[in-house]
Amino acid sequence: MTSFSTPFEIHVHGEVALRDDVDFKALQEATKPLWKYAGAKSLTEGAQSLYEEELGIRFEAADHKLQLCWTVRGNEDFRQVLDDLCMNINEVSAAGAQLEITFYDTEFEDDEEARGAESRDDFFVVFVGPDPAAIMQAQRDLLVQDVVGLMERHFDGSELSGVVHEIDKLFSERFNDLVSSLELGKPPRGNGGGPQGGHGGGRRPRHLH
């Protein structure tokens, strides 16, 4: 960790399918940005979350998955750590996946919220995967889930096939543009927007799973 000031509790949550040839040693290297940020010398030492009830950083050997439900105290410099983590996980993943990141402002008091002040809380989603197509598939699936969930308040699910079709067209066009621009070797990684994005405003619970 690069700073002694730790005004945030930072939670990383998600599940990533891994390639069949990925073993614990490879996973330890892939997740090094996380456990090193926590001040650990190995994944075994750094896998435990700040909260005992969270499973931490776990290699599920039977299902060949990486499970993350891990909290660490930190600062804004964790965003660079996250970039490094995503690049590493891209190399060992077998399919696209989303990681939910929550910054919880530990220095923000309840009475400040009552006075209308905004915390530095932040929540966003990043996407990982073995290639751009897999990453875009994960992005598409999340967007469909969000849009359909919102619209089902007003329409029957059977009426929304056209909406899903238009979303698929948008992602197809984006992928074609990516190929045409010769950027295929640079998998897109970005924070999710829509209902799951945001900053400030009402406070999110520390553990919203």
Rg over alpha carbons: 18 Å
Order of helices and strands: EHHHEEHEHEHH
Q: Regions with pLDDT < 50 over 5+ consecutive residues?
A: 187-201
Global structural class: alpha+beta
Major beta sheet, strand line-up: 2-3-1-4-5
Cα distance spanning the termini: 26 Å
Biggest sheet statistics = 5 strands, antiparallel
The coarse silhouette is globular
Number of domains: 2
Mean pLDDT: 83
Count of strand segments: 5
Please report the number of helical segments. Answer: 7
- Which percent band covers the strand fraction? 15-25%
Q: What is the percent of helical residues?
A: 25-40%
List keywords for this structure.
globular; 209 residues; 20% strand; alpha+beta
Give a written overview of the molecule.
With 209 residues, the protein is α+β, with helices and mostly antiparallel strands. Helix content is 37%, strand content 20%. It is built from seven helices and five strands, in the order βαααββαβαβαα. The protein has helices at residues 24-30, 32-37, 43-46, 78-92, 110-114, 132-151, 161-180, and strands spanning 8-17, 56-60, 65-74, 97-105, 122-128. It has a five-stranded antiparallel β-sheet with strand order 2-3-1-4-5. Strand 2 (56-60) and strand 3 form a beta hairpin. Helix 1 packs antiparallel against helix 4 and helix 6 (132-151) runs antiparallel to helix 7. The longest helix has 20 residues, at 132-151. The chain starts with 7 loop residues before the first strand and ends in a 29-residue tail after the last helix.
